[in-house]
Here is the input.
Amino acid sequence: MVNDNLSDFITRIRNGYMAHRVEMEVPLTKVTYQVAHVMVKRGYLSEAKKIDGKIRITLKYQGKQPAVTGLKRVSKPGARVYGGASELPRVRGGLGINILSTPKGIVDGSEAKKLKTGGEILARVW
Here is the structure.
């Protein structure tokens, strides 16, 4: 049994890239599906589909190099991290994204700034 589904999701993505997998399946939750959707939208994953209580993820590569060089969980169940729209930290000098849980849904940092809303910083991707 997994207590933190998002951390498990992030670890599976990292492990999939390290093993040079093309496709993988992870357990389906609303949060993990929305985070996967943000990563597809920003070009870090090729595809994410719901299939029988799981998410089938197609990892993206540029040649033989993974599209994701780093993926980190920021806010954890024991230590939540929040940020306002104007005070979100830059990821790798602007080369990465923050993924936030806001009142308007799960969005990336630039979308949160456009919506002028802050929230819980779930993960960073670069």
